[in-house]
Amino acid sequence: MQDFDVIVIGAGAAGLFCAGIAGQRRLRVLVLDHSEKVAEKVRISGGGRANFTNRDIDVRQPHKHFLSENPNFCRSALSRYTPADFIELVQKHGIAFHEKHKGQLFCDRSAEDLIQMLLRECEAGGVQRWQPCAVKGVRVSGESTYEIDTDRGTVTSRTVVIATGGLSIPKIGATDFGYRIARQFGLRLVEPRPGLVPLTFDGDGWVPYANLAGLALPVQIETGGHVSPHAPPLRGSLPPEGTPSALGRPGGKRKNLVTFHEDLLFTHRGLSGPAILQISSYWRDDTPIRLNLAPDVNLTEALARAKVTSRKLLANELASVVPSRLADAWVQQDADWQRPVAEATDKALARLAERLSRWEITPTGCEGYKKAEVTLGGVDTRDLSSQTMESKQAGLYFIGEVVDVTGWLGGYNFQWAWSSAHACACAI
Ligand code: FDA
Predict the structure, then answer these.
(1) If residue 97 lies in a helix (H) or strand (E), which one and from where to where?
(2) Residue 416: which pLDDT band, with cuts at 50, 70 and 90?
(3) Considering just the CA atoms, what is the radius of gyration of the chain in Å?
(4) What is d(CA 15, CA 4) in angstroms, rounded to the nearest whole number?
(5) Closest by Cα among 255, 196, 199, 239 to 410
């Protein structure tokens, strides 16, 4: 039976990063993964270029960008291994990168560069890696030794790191392994659910928009804030700073309002694009989302002005502030909008402005784990140390997405993988 100081289960972002650091601390490290390939999610991330961190992460106020039952849990790890630390490593490996949008950093060439970096770091630490290797069971034997049964035999170690990620994208190897191990050792779980996921709509209410697939436009989007005082609060983080909710009265009706300014994409089954992915992590079943489809224009004023000065059809006038396909589809919803703007009544124009700038619609569901970029929920942070990621079960650690810490779209989730892996690797 081979013995190691550390066995890491999961050769993804967090697992490989943790293994490399632990190996370089002269620990004997084995990484196990049931997939043939390493770090498949890194490979497909960021459109193949891996949005590997975000410069704007405010490590003192993690609740702004991370969702968790305890949004402050991630603060310690994030502040001890920051985006700047990871950027330094990327630079040390000579990987060229660029900032795309709102602090998001991407590889210039390919996510493969990042995977090679993780593998080189493992190599520098003499890390052994067994792939594909199915893990059949984990048990404690004696005082503090773990025995792990794999299809290549049983291995032992004083520490086990679970880095098996969440449930998103099962076709590239996601499983509930981490949650099962947590349950086996009596740790609590926050119910997992898909996050950063397209939302779906069906029924008659979606008919007017069904032909808009492929259309993209910048919007302001929000959810929450509409709830009655008796409705349960949104689980997860406090609302992002600067939103009306954060400025609102504590305990007020709009307390849980969450707002993003991003691009929206119409799809065949509903809505996607960064705006929807971001809001999906905060959206709860059977609640509406609200969109301003012309966020940079005061539509009421613009239409009132056009009524006096324009001879165009309302749809054509509207096409100066939203894409013409959207304008055409939109006016089909009301006979009063299918005429020249000069002939439309003030009431009809006001209704149009209100409808476009405050489009309220209730998703019927989401695309689920097959399309979700992340899994919300996971191992309950009450049963983990925020300093080391060790669980209440001594010697058993959880890092990365399997933990109930989920970031926004934009490199936040990889940074959590690096930071939690670093905290763990330095502690074992
Ligand atoms: P990760 O999922 O990376 O690794 C888990 C590993 O465990 C896998 O190798 C898997 O095979 C293995 N495993 C699972 N079950 C096992 C079992 N039973 N036995 C053995 N091994 C097992 N984030 C970001 O910050 N920027 C971005 O650009 C993107 N882009 C993006 C695109 C897409 C399409 C997706 C699906 C996701 C992203 N993400 C992202 C999210 C990011 O990929 C994710 O948060 C991290 O990969 C999580 O890292 P982990 O190491 O925790 O899990």
Answers:
(1) strand 97-99
(2) very high
(3) 24
(4) 16
(5) 196
* pLDDT score, position 252: 38
Q: Which two tokens stand for residue 220?
A: 């302001």
Q: Tell me how far the alpha carbon of residue 132 lies from the centroid of ligand 1, in angstroms.
A: 16
pTM given for the model: 0.93
Q: What backbone phi and psi angles, to 5 degrees, belong to 66?
A: -130, 140
Q: Kindly indicate whether the ipTM for this predicted assembly is greater than 0.95, answering yes or no.
A: yes
Helix (H) or strand (E) holding 357: helix 346-357
Q: Tell me 326's DSSP state.
A: H
Q: Which token pair is 280?
A: 């999906």
Report yes or no: 199 and 288 within 8 Å, Cβ to Cβ. Answer: no
For a ligand 1 pocket test, name from 45, 99, 171, 177 the mutation site with the most ligand atoms within 8 angstroms of its C-beta. 45
Q: Take residue 143 and report the two structure tokens written for it.
A: 């005082």
Residue 225 has a pLDDT of 72
Distance CA(397)–CA(141), nearest Å, equals: 17
Average pLDDT over residues 28-57: 97
Q: Name the nearest CA neighbour of 9 among 155, 189, 119, 141.
A: 155
Phi, psi of 105 (to 5 degrees): -105, 130
Q: Can you tell me whether residue 391 is helix, strand or coil? A: strand
- Which of 35, 36, 41 gets mutated to test ligand 1 (max ligand atoms within 8 A of its CB)? 41
**3-class secondary-structure state, position 199:** strand
CB atoms within 10 A of CB 181: 23
To 5 degrees, how large is the angle CA 341–CA 345–CA 351? 90
Judge contact between 18 and 424, C-beta under 8 A. yes
